[in-house]
């Protein structure tokens, strides 16, 4: 457990790492020098010693461990998102509305991985806040804006998939609609993050043995705002994905019954593949958001409600690091989730110039097996591929459109 000290100032008692409270207030134990610390200006802190351990920077061993975890995640994510953007904009056939939405998501993830890890490490490694007054205003604004923009873009991608399978063709997004939706995601995302720039302020305190700098939040406004942040970053996208993906699976179930009546296995395979992809998307989102949600709820709810609880410093520090590392991990694996689960993208990845400089792809062909044919014949009732049966995603989408048109 942490070692705690109490310093009395006239009628109030300061708990280490927390704001001044009355002497009979419940002792809340949490290493708040890593988070927020408000204190009345009337107290002359230069007359007193710093009431917590002075360490200035975490041990070198901890720095190495954190860098060992974050550097591979960041490098992998930057490479994956850059390659995804390259193959989308270098192939004219991939510049569809759906793929442009994925490109927007990749761009957000790329900017997140370029800007956020350095700011987080500088904040996490040092005891005092080293980014200054400008960094105090911009750090939360940039990180929060990118996160909100990311989840809004994720909601648009979910709607696009819903429109492609469930809704009428006129409800599908066109390239013009994609441009408008993309712009709105960025504008609304950073507009929603403005309180980070408005209600966070850089502060300095001179103790008799330590010069403290920190970035403090408005304790009246920000707890309420963090409730909104949790809704925007967790519950809103989770609800949108649950509704849209449930509707997609229900529609595919209808397609499956229609296809089985015609003894056609194409939609059965398509439904299985879509179900697996949607499950991976949903579970990855839930897993990476758990540490973030728990940390916000514990800190802003239990602390502000005056609840008493005890936590070890090691546990809170690990959870604090995991909260951010998991968000970076999600930005890094998005190219895998949205790219490698799509057959068209998998083929395009092999033609990437960037990847060709790193690794070499070789087509393995069986000389005893002739290449699959791609010529299709059309009957009056249904799409029937010639032998051998072609398992091609474009043909499956055409078949789904025909079944959807007949079911209306």
From TrEMBL:
Give Gene Ontology CC terms.
Answer: membrane
The keyword Transmembrane helix is assigned to this record: yes
| Name of the featured protein | G-protein coupled receptors family 1 profile domain-containing protein
Q: Which UniProt keywords apply?
A: G-protein coupled receptor, Membrane, Receptor, Transducer, Transmembrane, Transmembrane helix
**Residue ranges of every copy of the G-protein coupled receptors family 1 profile domain listed in the record:** 80-338
Which GO molecular-function terms appear in the entry?
G protein-coupled receptor activity
Q: How does the protein associate with the membrane?
A: Multi-pass membrane protein
Q: Which SMART domains match?
A: 7TM_GPCR_Srsx
Lineage top rank: taxon: Eukaryota
Entry-linked CDD domains: 7tmA_BNGR-A34-like
């Amino acid at each position: 457990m942490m070692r705690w000290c109490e310093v009395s100032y006239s009628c109030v008692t300061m708990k280490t790492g927390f704001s001044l409270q009355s002497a009979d207030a419940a002792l809340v134990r949490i290493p708040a020098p890593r988070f927020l610390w408000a204190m009345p200006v009337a107290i002359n802190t230069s007359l007193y010693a710093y009431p917590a351990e002075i360490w200035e920077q975490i041990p070198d061993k901890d720095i190495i461990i954190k860098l060992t975890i974050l550097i591979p995640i960041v490098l992998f994510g930057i490479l994956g998102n850059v390659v995804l953007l390259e193959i989308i904009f270098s192939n004219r056939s991939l510049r569809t509305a759906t793929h442009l939405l994925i490109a927007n998501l990749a761009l957000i993830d790329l900017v997140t991985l370029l800007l956020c890890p350095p700011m987080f490490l500088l904040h996490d490694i040092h005891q005092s806040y080293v980014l200054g007054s400008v960094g105090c205003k911009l750090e939360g604004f940039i990180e929060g804006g990118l996160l909100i923009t990311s989840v809004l873009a994720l909601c648009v991608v979910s709607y696009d998939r819903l429109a492609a399978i469930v809704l009428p063709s006129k409800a599908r997004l066109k390239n013009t609609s994609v441009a408008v939706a993309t712009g709105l995601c960025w504008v609304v995302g950073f507009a929603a993050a403005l309180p980070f720039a408005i209600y966070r302020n850089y502060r300095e305190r001179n103790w008799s043995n330590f010069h403290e700098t920190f970035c403090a939040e408005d304790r009246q406004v920000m707890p309420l705002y963090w409730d909104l942040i949790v809704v925007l970053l967790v519950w809103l996208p989770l609800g949108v994905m649950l509704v849209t993906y449930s509707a997609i699976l229900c529609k595919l179930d209808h397609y499956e019954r229609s296809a089985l009546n015609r003894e056609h296995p194409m939609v059965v395979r398509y439904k299985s593949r879509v179900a697996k992809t949607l499950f991976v998307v949903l579970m990855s989102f839930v897993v990476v958001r758990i540490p973030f949600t728990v940390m916000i709820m514990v800190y802003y709810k239990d602390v502000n409600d005056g609840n008493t609880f005890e936590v070890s410093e090691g546990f809170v520090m690990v959870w604090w690091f995991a909260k951010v590392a998991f968000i970076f991990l999600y930005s890094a694996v998005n190219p895998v989730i949205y790219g490698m689960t799509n057959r068209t993208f998998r083929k395009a990845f092999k033609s990437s110039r960037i990847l060709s400089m790193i690794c070499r792809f070789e087509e393995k062909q069986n000389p005893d097996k002739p290449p699959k044919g791609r010529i299709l014949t059309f009957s009056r009732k249904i799409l029937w591929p010639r032998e051998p049966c072609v398992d091609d995603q474009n043909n499956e989408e055409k078949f789904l459109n025909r079944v959807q048109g007949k079911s209306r």
